[in-house]
Write a structure and sequence with these properties.
Layout lengths: L4 E6 L2 E6 L4 E3 L4 E4 L6 H7 L7 H17 L3 E4 L10 H10 L6 E5 L8 H7 L3 E3 L1 E4 L2 E4 L9 E4 L5 E4 L6 E9 L2 E3 L19 E5 L4 E3 L1
Parallel strand pairs: 4-5, 5-6, 6-7, 9-10, 10-13
Antiparallel strand pairs: 1-2, 2-3, 3-4, 8-9, 11-12, 12-13, 12-14, 14-15
Length: 214
């Protein structure tokens, strides 16, 4: 797996965007991502829709590669860690997470994160809340128009349509505006929203081999 990177400045802080659907905050040594939707494949299987388990395995392999690449001290999920509560995929995630006992685990709760007390203990968070503020930057799952300051968000699963003479191509992206960094969905088993994107944004589109500005 190839990791392409693009450094950007947010509030005088360096963030490294990657083509693997995550960002790295250099100063805080934090791997930042959103919308893993762990348990989605198990939820579909439970409801009679046959899906291979390799989808989540692939997401966890990419996570491991990013951890080996950046050596983060913090793992920050900006909402929708889970998709449908507790199931066999969550067990597999917990087994994977146990390989990194020294990495602090932060969850900014998303609309899918219905987490019971028992499940919270199972996941072993270092921090869980509706928002998190570090150095004047707020992490929150969906953009809050009432808040001031810069926000790093998820929820939208942003994508861009690139037009060509052969066909139109839909690709995931980061969207950067004056007061927001919108993260792509980390899981590849998600749709793309190409319409509800922040206005006046710069888009960082990525493929398996590169990341470039639109």
């Amino acid at each position: 797996m190839f990791i392409a990177t693009k450094s950007i400045s947010i509030q005088d802080e360096i963030f490294i965007l990657t083509n693997q659907r995550a960002a790295f905050w250099e100063k805080e040594k934090a791997l930042v991502l959103s919308d893993l939707h762990i348990g989605k494949t198990a939820h579909f299987r439970k409801n009679g829709i046959a899906l291979a388990n390799h989808i989540m395995k692939s997401d966890l392999q990419r996570l491991s590669a990013l951890i080996e690449f950046f050596h983060p001290e913090k793992f920050v999920v900006v909402g929708d860690l889970l998709h449908a509560g507790d199931n066999s995929d969550v067990d597999e995630f917990c087994t994977w997470k146990s390989r990194y006992p020294d990495m602090q685990f932060y969850l900014i709760e998303g609309n899918h994160d219905r987490i019971s007390k028992a499940l919270e203990e199972k996941l072993c968070f270092n921090y869980k809340s509706e928002s998190l503020e570090i150095a004047g930057i707020t992490f929150i799952h969906d953009f809050d128009k009432i808040r001031s300051g810069f926000q790093i968000t998820g929820h939208i699963h942003p994508g861009i349509v690139l037009n060509s003479s052969v066909r139109n191509i839909r690709l995931p992206c980061f969207a950067l505006s004056s007061n927001q960094l919108l993260l792509p969905a980390f899981s590849e088993f998600t749709g793309l929203d190409t319409k509800n994107l922040p206005e006046k944004s710069t888009f960082f589109v990525f493929t398996d081999a590169e990341i470039y500005e639109v």
